[in-house]
Write a structure and sequence with these properties.
This protein has one domain. The radius of gyration is 20 Å and the shape is elongated. It is mainly alpha-helical and about 230 residues long.
Amino acid sequence: MSSRGTGITLAVGVVAGIIGYMLWQMTIGFNTAADDLPTILQNSASGATALQLVAVLVGVGLSVHLAGLWGTRGTASGTYESLGILLITVAIISWVIGISDILATAELGKSFVAALPGASAGDPAATALVGRILVTEGATQASGNASGDIGGLLAGLGWISMGLAYRGSDFKGALSFLPLGWLAIVAGTLLVVSILVITSTVGREVASQVNGICFLLITLWSISVGVKLATNSD
């Protein structure tokens, strides 16, 4: 891939991904508790179209970003760079696979909303259906959280490795005042702390907000590197 192509895919892909992530949070509700299954289902049903867009933005965006990241190989050559790109690759694969849980929740939400009036009226069949949907959604959420946590941990370790690689490199991004090495290390460390500490001690909702900050830092890193590569002649 050309330097210009690498830069464009690196920057545009991650921007699409972060937009998809924010849209997902907005659709579910920033203040919605992770175990508030009825609210998650109802919000997913009303925002089913938005969640389909989320799947496209995150799935395609992260895949394009990954292509750009692989194109940067050699920019900060060394073991840390290779390890970082590999770990981030596995993380993105995990996240993209997890998109199916978002779409499944949207479909379950439609069935849940349709069955609620009957359940409220005391219809045994509708009540039983609502119960089954809640159980299924609980399993779906558990699966999504697990894949998200694994992806987040691997991505965190990957970005720490990338940061260590770029600390030893003379390469500077388009935003030359930003230290690429430290920016990646901070983003990666926050991700690891969020997954291993904040999720279990403070709550998944707070961890999700911290993850959002991490993704913004990664987006800033990718734009800085991407614009620099895109404006360089091959």
